[in-house]
Specification:
Shape: globular
Oligomer: single chain
Strand content: 25-35%
Largest sheet: 7 strands, mixed
Structural class: alpha/beta
């Protein structure tokens, strides 16, 4: 028997989000129905809604959900009705990378999470008037009052922590934190540079502040975001609209360059500047995603000093351990995620989209 709910549907590429009555399929093996309490809004949602990715539309997006389990399907063992959960990406659990502790690099990641719109067997999870909609987005499609969620996407969390305060952990925050903790791994004396002070970049700043890094440099073109970065742990800021990045970083590092760079903007010109700013044996983590097919030119000889350029998906996190650790840091005040969040009622999703696009909101969170 299908489960009625209300969702924000994107009818076609470039169309607004429209609230609509839809039906969820009943939970199958390793699936659960979750009553949504909050869900973050991410640039990935907007990129798909604009038609920039081949996700099947009309469809239901949303991939930073948080809520309470209402029902579980056969074979579900990790959660039970009443559990508080944060929703993240899904994975097959059986490929080499999944078994090796790197589910963000699952062999079937793209169709299961980003572009497929269906379960792995091709069946639909959400419909309207008998017609299948694109769904199963990151195994959840959480822009809805209820979501049918893959068990692999479910992370049981501390019920004492308000769900609206931790919904962004499912994607943006774990991406920024993971770039620092799982890839750069700063040591004493390190210089970490974060290019872009949006939600992912500021999460990287907060993560770096919890490491032995000596210099934490936030770079952006918006003075207010740089001021916030300073409050969240940046030791230095660079306004790229007013200063030459290479000169500024040379001054901060005594000409040595950066040991680690997190590139969150998706701008290939900024990426090139970041690679050029690396110290010998330094690493740049590519987080920002420009349109598919985008290329960047690099000075090959400049890489021979041991520089590394590493792509990253979702912080290379193993969610079942990583997200509960972040929840604890939020609870204890050591990861002040609330400084990034602006909340909106679910019905005001288009206002949240507009405010995010205008730079008025760093991390919009929709509440139900």
């Amino acid at each position: 028997m299908s489960i009625p709910t209300r969702a924000a549907v994107v009818e076609s590429g470039g169309a607004p989000f429209t609230l609509s009555d839809v039906e969820l399929d009943e939970p199958g093996p390793h699936e659960a129905v979750v009553r949504m309490v909050a869900t973050g809004l991410c640039h990935t949602d907007l990129g798909v809604a604009s038609g920039g990715l081949p996700f099947p539309l009309p469809g239901v997006l949303g991939h930073e959900g948080a809520g309470v389990v209402e029902a579980v399907g056969p074979s579900v063992t990790g959660v039970a009705p009443g559990d508080h959960v944060v929703l993240s990406f899904t994975s097959c659990g059986d490929c080499r990378n999944c078994r090796g502790g790197h589910p963000a690099y699952c062999a079937t990641w793209l169709p299961l999470n980003l572009i497929g719109g269906r379960r792995a067997d091709g069946s639909s999870t959400i419909s309207r008037g008998g017609e299948a909609l694109g769904g199963h987005f990151f195994g959840q499609s959480s822009f809805a009052e209820r979501a049918l969620v893959d068990e692999a996407s479910l992370v049981k969390v501390d019920p004492e922590v308000p769900l609206a305060s931790i919904a962004p952990l499912g994607c943006g925050v774990q991406t920024g934190v993971g770039a620092v903790w799982n890839v750069l791994k700063p040591v004493t004396g390190s210089t970490v540079v974060v290019l872009g002070a949006g939600a992912v970049g500021l999460s990287a700043v907060m993560a770096a502040a919890l490491t032995p890094a000596t210099n934490i440099v936030a770079v952006d073109r918006v003075a207010e975001r740089l001021a916030l970065a300073k409050e969240l742990g940046a030791t230095h800021t660079v306004n790229a609209a007013e200063a030459d990045l290479a000169e500024a970083l040379a001054g901060i590092t005594g000409g040595q360059g950066a040991d680690g760079v997190v590139e969150t903007t998706g701008n290939v010109g900024v990426l090139r500047q970041g690679v050029d700013a690396l110290a010998a044996r330094g690493t740049l983590v590519v987080v920002g995603a420009p349109p598919f097919g985008t290329e960047v030119a690099l000075d090959v000889n400049g890489l021979l000093g041991g520089k590394q350029v590493v792509g990253l998906t979702l912080g290379d996190a193993e969610t079942q351990t990583f997200i509960p650790a972040l929840v604890r840091l939020v609870k204890e005040g050591r990861l002040p995620l609330h400084r990034l969040i602006s909340t909106y009622p679910f019905a005001e999703i288009d206002q949240a989209v507009g405010d995010m696009g205008a730079g008025k909101a760093i991390k919009p969170v929709l509440t139900f």
